[in-house]
């Protein structure tokens, strides 16, 4: 008999991916302070993909305490440019600076997903996508952000690849689901292996 599935994320995009895949789940975002968890990791040599993994696990374990008889999906994504790790921009000025920083360069989106049962991580996976942004004129960045508005604040890169953000790109190496923030194919494979979804 399959268990219930809980998504420990406030991300509209992750909810949409699971819903579109036909997964029956409930959603309960964790209320942990992610930046507080991450702060001690900043200068410890932990890689951006490991940070994503740690945050995904922390959120899923937190929600699992309230749902001990269900499988909890935790997910997180970081953006790395060289040695620097980025998170969602706090405001439009930060979004503008983010796009200027990424302009003409290749950055990486590190997407982690975990399954937690009774507070224990029982499966984990991380996928990385490399995206090369074309050189962007500052005037274009301003017009682009004025057009997309606050949607720019909902992703780590200040863009939505599934919408107008695709116009910012020159090349992409990685799958769509990793870029959106949930490595869906490995997750579905694991849920099928466990008999939680029909396979």
Automatic annotation (TrEMBL):
Keywords: Cytoplasm, Hydrolase, Nucleotide metabolism
Catalytic activity as recorded in UniProt: a 2'-deoxyribonucleoside 5'-triphosphate + H2O = a 2'-deoxyribonucleoside 5'-phosphate + diphosphate + H(+); a ribonucleoside 5'-triphosphate + H2O = a ribonucleoside 5'-phosphate + diphosphate + H(+)
Gene3D superfamilies reported in the protein's UniProt record: 3.90.950.10
Active-site residues, as the UniProt record annotates them: 76 (proton acceptor)
Keyword Cytoplasm: yes
Superkingdom, natural source: Bacteria
Localization terms from the record: Cytoplasm
Alphabetical list of HAMAP family matching this protein: Maf (MF_00528)
General function of this protein: Nucleoside triphosphate pyrophosphatase. May have a dual role in cell division arrest and in preventing the incorporation of modified nucleotides into cellular nucleic acids.
Family in the record: Belongs to the Maf family.
Descriptive protein name: Nucleoside triphosphate pyrophosphatase
Source organism of the structure: Fulvimarina manganoxydans
């Amino acid at each position: 008999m399959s268990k219930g599935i809980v998504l420990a994320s406030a991300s509209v995009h992750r909810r949409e991916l699971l819903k579109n895949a036909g997964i029956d789940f409930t959603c309960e975002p964790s209320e942990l302070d992610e930046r507080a968890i991450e702060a001690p990791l900043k200068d410890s040599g932990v890689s951006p993909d490991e940070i994503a993994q740690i945050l995904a696990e922390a959120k899923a374990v937190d929600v699992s305490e309230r749902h001990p008889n269900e499988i909890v999906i935790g997910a997180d994504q970081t953006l790395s440019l060289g040695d620097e790790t980025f998170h969602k921009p706090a405001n439009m000025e930060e979004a503008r600076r983010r796009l200027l920083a990424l302009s003409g360069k290749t950055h990486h989106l590190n997407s982690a997903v975990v399954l937690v049962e009774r507070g224990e991580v029982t499966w984990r996976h991380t996928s990385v996508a490399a995206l090369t942004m074309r050189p962007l004129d500052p005037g274009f960045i301003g017009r682009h952000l004025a057009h997309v508005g606050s949607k720019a604040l909902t992703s780590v890169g200040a863009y939505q690849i599934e919408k107008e953000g695709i116009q910012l790109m020159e090349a992409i190496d990685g799958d769509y689901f990793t870029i959106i923030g949930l490595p869906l194919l490995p997750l579905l494979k694991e849920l099928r292996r466990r008999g939680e979804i029909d396979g």
